Amino acid sequence: xxxxxxxxxxxxxxxxxxxxxxxxxxxxxxxxxxxxxxxxxxxxxxxxxxxxxxxxxxxxxxxxxxxxxxxxxxxxxxxxxxxxxxxxxxxxxxxxxxxxxxxxxxxxxxxxxxxxxxxxxxxxxxxxxxxxxxxxxxxxxxxxxxxxxxxxxxxxxxxxxxxxxxxxxxxxxxxxxxxxxxxxxxxxxxxxxxxxxxxxxxxxxxxxxxxxxxxxxxxxxxxxxxxxxxxxxxxxxxxxxxxxxxxxxxxxxxxxxxxxxxxxxxxxxxxxxxxxxxxxxxxxxxxxxxxxxxxxxxxxxxxxxxxxxxxxxxxxxxxxxxxxxxxxxxxxxxxxxxxxxxxxxxxxxxxxxxxxxxxxxxxxxxxxxxxxxxxxxxxxxxxxxxxxxxxxxxxxxxxxxxxxxxxxxxxxxxxxxxxxxxxxxxxxxxxxxxxxxxxxxxxxxxxxxxxxxxxxxxxxxxxxxxxxxxxxxxxxxxxxxxxxxxxxxxxxxxxxxxxxxxxxxxxxxxxxxxxxxxxxxxxxxxxxxxxxxxxxxxxxxxxxxxxxxxxxxxxxxxxxxxxxxxxxxxxxxxxxxxxxxxxxxxxxxxxxxxxxxxxxxxxxxxxxxxxxxxxxxxxxxxxxxxxxxxxxxxxxxxxxxxxxxxxxxxxxxxxxxxxxxxxxxxxxxxxxxxxxxxxxxxxxxxxxxxxxxxxxxxxxxxxxxxxxxxxxxxxxxxxxxxxxxx
Length: 726
Hints:
27% helix
């Protein structure tokens, strides 16, 4: 009891002078009644968010040093431990960004089923801010129904290389598009009174030996490409951030004061809960001093240094920020769980279906699409592909959501089309030639390797490529629907009748795809990344071979080391073999790289076809008050079908003092038009649309001079251009 009193007094003196007033909580009696009543009062969400810290400090003063330490060192593996003695409830976490992943022995076991939403890369392909908010709000509703307080998503990393097995969890290659989708995801999710977690901060653009990689990113690229989506999520009010597995400049991100106190809390102004990724930190003293708050899943590093850290101001600060976040966000509310929301399965499924309809992309079409349901009447539809009979349309790892009402592509084809539907994994040449239509569903399998998954990177080629090439060559009516979360090699593309980027559509993906193939829904999705012809064209080419190029040193990770949850380390010295990933392309990521190097991609960033056509004209660019620029243009549906176009606005510095991309995305709008209908689209640009990060002043800078404003349907289809002087 004496130790408890001394620790509490020290905490009060250091952090909360007000706690020494007449309102100082009484010391605990044997039953803890007085402290419990005081804790109950302090757990209530304040009317002013600024009061949450005062309440948190007073709560921590009631806790023993052991209770504080247990809270910050993981507690329960999928959440934050409570303090039963004081009536502080536990906080429950769930994976991931595309719904709630049910995991045994975690709070998610309360669910009998959860909705499998489309992958977030598919959400990004809608380029629809409102839909991003609706998608996340539906997930938030399901969380409240099952008493889940914190979602471990959305992913805010950048699609740097196509091989990253986790690209399906992110929002693409462009920081502007990613930022707009992330901020609306955060607002939508948190509108339901739950917390979003931005991950993985920062520089986690590969899954290849992710726990032993060191990301080397220059200052300008960090600020222009990799930080904006995190900043947008933080500015939108995200309650939590998760650090990444990798090192940044030679220190593990989850225990780096430069990353957390410097970048996250200093530069981006984040003041709420920061947590580690699962088993990603090794030095408890560094972690406690870094600005980190919570080590998941069970405090490995902190517990190694427990004797030195127990009862210290560093641990107390961590506990304060955890409680402050939970109080301000209302996560301790007595009526947090709302089981009456559980039954809205149809409503949430409708949102998921709408995302598929707006995000699936028609990449190529020689006129075969849309297909009438009776197109093969009296003939045969041959259904082929690794993913033709797969039901769980979700990437693997923490982003995998099983869903319910799952339907495979093969089942959906049989329900949609007339004629004899034959599902054949390895068809003969005669079967291929004889088919009235081939619907090919290639991709990576749900089980085995290669796969798209957390902790794995995958090849640029697909397991189907040789058979797919044979089908396209032997039958000119081969429609390819790619089930993948990123770009793939498409040497067979010139011979395919049509190519659709179907992604992972969750439980509504197959049905929505059939509606697009048959024309019930006019496709309108656009690529949030570039699909290169060869991976050798990519700015990241070569990174996948680096660990093996240093084969003389790499095996020491396996020599005299102990395997600890997926990483080879020395338990005593916490050593690991690390390889460097040089982001050598700097700011030239995605379309910026292909434009700078004049490399023709297979399909450019922003590309996507429709069953109708659109015309752009009447571009007007003018300066307004406050040093802003107003851009307007007319968009007309010149076809015979109703459809939606995603109009894109790019800005280029005509004569820049530093090397800059020829054009960068700075505005977009989804516009739905009936046949023959026109609409004037108005977009406004602030100074940030013209700025770059100046490494000499370490600040954003706009150079006076001429800027070119370009408008069109993709990064490589920009018919309208005008210059303006700033």
